[in-house]
Design the sequence.
């Protein structure tokens, strides 16, 4: 069965070294065609269809398989991913080359190949006796690989002929390399370029748009004018970076100004610095997030970051002059020497970090034109030129476009159309867009993942009861917001015989269902968290678990992980115990219901007494915590009341806080802290914890200044003094001031993060004033909690360990992903709220509301409308309007406009309306109503005015 | 550059083998006439020569003699030309000493030493070319040499290495696979009884996986046994033909 062959290979590793390797050539590798008699039994994994029902191709009407070469795979992966393309043979040679050249494409091709219905087959040609090719003298590696591919195609065609006499099955070689194609045809192999083949698929014309345009020759219709300077090759860049001539960094485009960007230079902490790039030529085709090499310009050319807002609006690329004009506009702004920042220019790209971008098509003015510009939703991404025939169908739609390249004579990068998401403004489309833009994995769970779910009907078996305590007799209940279906915590409290209290927090035992390492676990780890949007929930675990088997609903037996304390009546913990358990919740209450029970004097059943006990203890715990210096911060949170039919928001409501909210919160905090202590004690090197670093003092400047303007003092030296001074900062005439200060304080905070205890030595949680903290109480919606559950289960001997759990590097990787996902989930949530706010005001029309000034800027004020928890900016200058007199005072943040002075925290009245002039970026626009400033503020009576009148008087960006 | 892919999705290793497959084994017994026993083995590109003298009287200090069994003396050396870059010292370095000790342990467990009290058995092994799995090649060669010398043994000692990559256990690692730095296990097995003469492990491997890797290694060792057995039988056949029986 084995054919052995030894060959010599020379590699250079410092010097010349002779490497001797064996290579076994096999004759048991199947061709992959299902039902092939010659290689029956050698099949495994997805196979090719015996009679491919391919989309009709006018070039090759016979049934056929496709065999693409490396470049086709690398560049046209979007086409290959289309469901219309099936029965593709991927050669090992090709796959290897792809692997070496592009990790993302390699991953995508592997994903595609794992789909049964795509019928992709990987043929291991390098190990096959008849298709192995040895490098000839004078032949380079690329040519050898091309030859190997051709040999494989030839072998396939001969092999398929042997299959049966009358079968006309063919393998078609797809290559974009002209020479390679010629050689193939010479050898009698049917070969086409990708473009030819895709164009011949008459049934699927939409595929053409997905072709990546690799304009090499003759495809450029632009003038040959070279706009950008050449990028240096990687070897030169590396040399330059080593010698210090160039700096390596991440390119971050500016949201406000398309001609400006910063490069965040990697390096040691002190060296971390930003370099400013200004002007198209200096940006030199870098796109947001790329890793670039920059060269510093001489000091005489340094500039200050401009405060001008510039959006790329010119659709034509011929006006280089205007471009230059705009660039000059930036430069004149530089005021004094101290404002100048290191300035540089991009000399080369080290790594592109392109991803598919969401956005909309801006149609070309020429009706017949096939080339259109695409405007991404993210303002940091330049517009992309794509070629499409379905422009009219794509107009007004949200689409996804991938970038193919950016030639030096083109103003915009070239790309191709990938997918149509749906109508812009449509709720589902917009949700999809914001999920995609925030990189939230939101596809339905795959079959592989679902296969690890327990079979229904599910019941607790003998086996489940191992290492588990039966706590069904306890009077446990859950308290959650209304409409909550993923209940992950429940509580109980009872008096013990010795007079002490027993308090239990019972958390859904998700780790019982999600076993380490399987597809379900991997998928949950990838998702990291459940994302709550206004009208949608993107689950981390499949619904069967999140809303049924793990959800601690009332009157059913559920598996739980319990943390049970014995406390005295002063809420001092005497004993802590953790155990896996079975519980039977007696009631699922909402916060309001629980509050009612506690308050009503007539109710005295078990649940109510238990709740009262909990509430009493929670108050003591909270007091203790605040004494230690825990912060009570505030952020305006809103809930939308949805119309049950249309799911449109009909009303906004700020979240109400009841005693019961804080009761549940207190015990969750206590459980988290107790668990954190336990797992850290057991696994000092690889416990997953959560920390909240203290913010640097400079963060507080805004807060201190703002308070000073109201004659209040905020001390920020410790969390405790901050909390105390915030409590004292009351103004009897202005009750809302305290909330405003707390909102400001929230903005000063750092982000809390997960980390692995072995990789860090600062565990402190600043906001909660706890020396150690973790997340244990929401395993249904956070992956971190699942890991913590596993650690705790091992610590108490209820479950077995697995290798990854005790590998701190793997744990650190998990933490990194979780932190990223949490951040993105937060952004997505905010974007969703913003979108719904827009929908709300769309239906509401123009309203005017009271607002407080939160920040004062040079040309605008940021206001907060408490009623809607909505924040917005009121601009006072506009491009095509005469500028009002603005005087800005940085010391006491205030802005003087004409004769009116605006201070921070001043009460104003603003008008809110939806601005849909830009379909892609609809926004809430606010304008000032009170105090009245002639020529600035708008009257309420304006609302009745006709459209053109109103436009004139509006102020905004 | 993406690193070397030790096991492809299709289940092939760098050199075209599947996970549980051995490299090609070729062996010959009785290669030298002057020694009591000798054998030569090729496992892929790993080539080893083993020579056995004894049992004979204790050489050197008499004090080393054991009253109840024979002394097994093993010496391992590796030719200066065995690796890609020429080695400086063929033997006597730390690694060779360790290997000698391991061989000694292995064969003390396999040879019926109590049949030859106060005597000595010398096993000299030399690796001519190293391409991974030197220990197993040495053990297998030495087994054949001991058989050739006619020294009674409990059973063949068959050795094979195994590694662990991406949740799959690989049998008989080549040099490339060893150099990748994963966990590596060397097993010397007495196939008939399934007893383990020596088990050695480099790097960390989670205990949950150990069983699978061990299983792979012992299956491979049994495969080695089948091959060695064939070699021995053929050798005996040839010898008896020469004798004219």
Sequence:
């Amino acid at each position: 069965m084995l054919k052995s062959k030894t060959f010599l290979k020379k590699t250079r590793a410092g010097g010349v070294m002779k490497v001797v390797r064996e290579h076994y050539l096999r004759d048991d590798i199947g061709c992959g065609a299902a039902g092939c008699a010659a290689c029956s039994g050698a099949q495994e994994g997805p196979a090719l269809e015996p009679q491919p029902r391919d989309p009709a191709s006018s070039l090759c009407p016979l049934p056929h398989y496709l065999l693409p070469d490396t470049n086709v795979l690398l560049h046209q992966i979007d086409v290959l991913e289309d469901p219309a393309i099936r029965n593709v043979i991927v050669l090992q040679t090709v796959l290897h080359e792809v692997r070496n050249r592009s990790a993302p494409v390699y991953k995508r091709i592997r994903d595609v190949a794992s789909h049964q219905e795509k019928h992709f087959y990987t043929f291991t040609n390098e190990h096959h006796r008849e298709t192995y090719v040895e490098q000839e003298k004078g032949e380079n590696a690329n040519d050898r690989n091309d030859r190997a591919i051709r040999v494989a195609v030839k072998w396939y065609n001969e092999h398929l002929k042997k299959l049966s006499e009358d079968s006309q099955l063919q393998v078609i070689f797809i290559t974009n390399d002209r020479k390679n194609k010629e050689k193939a045809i010479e050898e009698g192999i049917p070969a086409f370029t990708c473009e030819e083949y895709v164009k011949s698929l008459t049934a699927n014309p939409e595929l053409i748009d997905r072709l990546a345009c690799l304009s090499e020759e003759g495809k450029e219709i632009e003038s040959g004018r070279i706009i950008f300077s050449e990028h240096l090759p990687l070897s030169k860049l590396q040399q330059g970076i080593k010698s210090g001539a160039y700096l390596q960094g991440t390119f971050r485009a500016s949201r406000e100004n398309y001609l400006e960007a910063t490069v965040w230079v990697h390096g040691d902490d002190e060296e971390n610095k930003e370099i400013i790039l200004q002007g198209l030529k200096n940006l030199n085709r870098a796109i947001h997030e790329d890793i670039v090499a920059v060269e510093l310009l001489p000091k005489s050319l340094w500039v200050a970051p401009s405060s001008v807002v510039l959006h790329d609006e010119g659709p034509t690329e011929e006006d280089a002059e205007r471009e230059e004009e705009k660039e000059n506009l930036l430069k004149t702004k530089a005021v004094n020497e101290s404002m100048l920042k290191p300035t540089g220019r991009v000399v080369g790209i080290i790594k592109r970090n392109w991803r598919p971008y969401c956005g909309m098509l801006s149609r070309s003015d020429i009706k017949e034109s096939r080339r259109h510009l695409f405007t991404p939703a993210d303002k940091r991404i330049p517009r992309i030129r794509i070629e499409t025939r379905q422009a009219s169908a794509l107009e007004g739609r949200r689409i996804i476009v991938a970038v193919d390249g950016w030639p030096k004579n083109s103003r915009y990068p070239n790309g191709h159309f990938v997918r149509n998401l749906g109508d812009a403004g449509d709720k589902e489309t917009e949700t999809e867009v914001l999920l995609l833009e925030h990189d939230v994995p939101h596809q339905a769970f795959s079959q592989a993942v679902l296969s690890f779910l327990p079979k229904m009907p599910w019941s607790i078996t003998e086996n489940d009861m191992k290492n588990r305590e039966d706590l069904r007799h306890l009077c446990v209940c859950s308290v959650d917001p209304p409409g909550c279906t993923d209940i992950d915590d429940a509580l109980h409290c009872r008096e013990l015989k010795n007079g002490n209290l027993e308090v239990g927090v019972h958390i859904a035992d998700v780790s019982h269902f999600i076993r380490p390492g399987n597809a379900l676990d991997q998928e949950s780890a990838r998702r990291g968290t459940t994302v709550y949007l206004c009208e949608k929930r993107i689950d981390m675990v499949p619904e069967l678990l999140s809303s049924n088997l793990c959800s601690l609903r009332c009157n059913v037996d559920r598996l739980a992980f319990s943390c049970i304390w014995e406390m005295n009546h002063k809420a001092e913990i005497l004993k802590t115990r953790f155990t896996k358990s079975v519980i039977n919740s007696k009631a699922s209450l909402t916060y309001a219901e629980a509050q009612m029970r506690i308050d009503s004097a007539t109710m005295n059943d078990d649940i109510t007494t238990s709740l009262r006990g909990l509430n009493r203890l929670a108050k003591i715990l909270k007091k203790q915590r605040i004494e230690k210096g825990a912060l009570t911060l505030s952020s305006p949170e809103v809930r939308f009341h949805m119309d049950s039919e249309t799911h449109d928001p009909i009303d906004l409501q700020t979240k109400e806080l009841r005693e019961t909210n804080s009761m549940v919160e207190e015990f969750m905090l206590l459980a988290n802290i107790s668990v954190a202590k336990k797992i850290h004690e057991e696994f000092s090197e690889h416990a997953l914890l959560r920390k909240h670093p203290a913010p640097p003092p400079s963060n507080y400047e805004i807060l201190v200044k703002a308070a000073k303007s109201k004659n209040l003092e905020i001390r920020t030296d410790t969390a405790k003094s901050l909390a105390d001074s915030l409590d004292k900062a009351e103004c009897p005439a202005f009750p809302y001031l305290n909330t405003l200060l707390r909102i400001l304080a929230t903005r000063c905070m750092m982000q809390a993060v997960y980390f692995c205890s072995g990789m860090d030595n600062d565990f402190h949680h600043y906001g909660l004033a706890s020396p150690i903290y973790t997340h244990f109480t929401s395993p249904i919606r956070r992956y971190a909690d699942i890991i913590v559950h596993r650690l705790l289960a091992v610590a108490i001997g209820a479950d077995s360990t697995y290798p990854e759990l005790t590998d701190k590097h793997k744990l650190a990787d998990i933490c990194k992903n979780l932190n990223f996902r949490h951040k993105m989930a937060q952004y997505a949530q905010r974007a969703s709220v913003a979108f719904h706010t827009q929908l709300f005001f769309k239906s509401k029309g123009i309203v005017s509301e009271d607002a407080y000034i939160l920040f004062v800027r040079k040309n605008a004020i940021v206001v907060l409308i408490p009623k809607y928890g909505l924040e917005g900016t009121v601009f006072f200058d506009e491009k095509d309007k005469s500028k009002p007199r603005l005087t800005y005072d940085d010391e006491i943040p205030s802005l003087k406009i004409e004769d009116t002075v605006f201070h921070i925290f001043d009460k104003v009245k603003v008008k809110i309306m939806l601005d849909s002039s830009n379909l892609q970026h609809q926004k809430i626009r606010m304008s000032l109503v009170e105090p009245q400033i002639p020529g600035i503020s708008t009257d309420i009576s304006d609302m009745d005015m006709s459209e053109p009148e109103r436009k004139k008087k509006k102020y905004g960006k | 550059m993406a690193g070397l892919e030790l096991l492809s999705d299709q289940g092939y290793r760098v050199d075209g083998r599947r996970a549980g497959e051995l490299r090609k084994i070729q062996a010959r017994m009785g290669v030298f006439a002057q020694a009591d026993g000798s054998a030569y083995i090729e496992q892929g590109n790993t080539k080893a020569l083993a020579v056995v003298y004894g049992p004979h009287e204790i050489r050197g200090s008499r004090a080393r003699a054991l009253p109840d069994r024979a002394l097994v003396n093993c010496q391992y050396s590796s030719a200066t030309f065995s690796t890609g870059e020429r080695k400086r010292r063929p033997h006597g370095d730390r690694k060779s000493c360790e290997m000698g000790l391991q061989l000694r342990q292995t064969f003390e467990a396999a040879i019926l030493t109590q049949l030859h009290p106060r005597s000595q058995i010398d096993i000299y092994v030399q690796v001519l070319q190293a391409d991974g799995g030197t220990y197993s090649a040495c053990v297998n060669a030495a087994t054949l040499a001991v058989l050739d010398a006619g020294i009674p043994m409990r059973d063949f000692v068959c050795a094979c290495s195994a590694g662990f990559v991406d949740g799959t256990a690989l049998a008989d690692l080549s040099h490339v696979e060893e150099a990748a730095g994963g966990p590596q296990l060397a097993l010397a097995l007495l196939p008939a009884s399934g007893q383990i003469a020596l088990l050695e492990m480099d790097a960390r491997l989670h205990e949950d996986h150990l069983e699978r890797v061990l299983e792979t290694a012992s299956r491979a060792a049994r495969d080695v046994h089948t091959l060695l057995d064939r070699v021995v039988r053929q050798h005996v056949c040839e010898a008896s033909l020469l004798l004219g029986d």
Notes: Chain B touches chain A at residues 1-2, 5, 8-12, 14-17, 21, 23-24, 44-45, 84-85, 131, 174, 176, 206, 208-209 (CB under 8 Å).
